Amino acid sequence: MHCERKILDNFYWVGANDRRIELFENAYPVPNGISYNSFLLTDEKNILVDGVDSAVTNLFIENIKYILQDRPLDYVIINHMEPDHCAGFIEIAVHYPNVQFIGNAKTIKLFKQLYPNIKLENFIIVNEGDSFSAGKFQFQFMLAPMVHWPEVMVTYESTTKTLFSADAFGTFGALNGNLFFDEIVNKEEYFTESRRYYSNIVGKYGAQTLSLLKKASNLDIHMICPLHGPLLRSDFEAIFERYQKWGSYTAEENTVTVVYGSIYGNTQQAADKLAQILSEKGIKNIRVYDVAKTHYSYIIGDCFRTSTLACLSATYNNGLFASTEAFLLEFANHNISNKTIALVENGSWSPQAGKCMKAIIDGLKNTTIIEPIVTIVSSPTEETFEQLNTLADKIINSLK
User: Fold this and answer.
1) Is it true that the peptide bond before 372 is cis, omega within 30 degrees of 0?
2) Contact 169/232 with Cβ under 8 angstroms?
3) Per the CB 3.0–4.6 Å rule, which of 38, 262, 302, 387 could disulfide with 268?
């Protein structure tokens, strides 16, 4: 059963959805699945742009064969060599042995590493600014290294004014019939998952993202085709504005993400009290997360949204509670910058969590740690609540 979708004349979506997948890249929860976007442009020569994961390769091949019938597939443009977009090329090579792959020098190196059994005599290497003509379609290639692999490039097709943007402008979630962003009613849900996708998949490479945005701003774009999620044909200004903020680690909102690691509920009580005090003092749209229950990818997403992180943790084995440590290591590994961070530790006989938390986040660019670290001894007291009130005032002053 083929499930292709016509976008424009001679321009088709031939990707697929995977709603059975539980963890994207075996790391990130995707309760709404994921889409793998691939595009087929037909004219004097037939060109496939990007591929799909092995889980959906059968449908992918059916889509292509239904459109092409007995015609050949002449070229495949590879914008990103990650297996969730390229595993399907094994079957492409079987069904279309004369196809020519197009990519840059780093693409071919990764291709040989990942798929050594596919012959590469028909590989066309392109560089920054190179162009390629295939009938009415005119392609221009722009390198986008480390957004988020070193071989990544994007391709601009000037006839339809389409940017094939690789992993940029993508999002988690399968497509639900609607192929385009402007067909989605709940746009805030889209931006939430788009932020979670960007911050976790690409977020470490903010400078490289801004470089790509600069290149894209010089193009006359009517449509953006990312590798995951809905296609974009409107609202470019709002989307680019968010990417500009995410790439520069600029908060969307002056508010607080409260994160806690609690064993018996005492540290949680302090976290809830701090959030309550902040709310009573006028702070809106606060988020509170239990790091032992919530996957870090959701918390990282909100850390990109908010200007301030408050992290509260129990001491465990004379060190840091494991779930808190795992979250903070991810926070630091994503190079999250330009944040104000408040720390609260708990320990019954030798509180060590504050020192451990500070050691992980020390050195992050333009990061301010509010001093002093608040210490709880076993359970919060009235004195603790007074300290949290003072901490809340310091947080609010930082928001100004």
Assistant:
1) yes
2) yes
3) 262
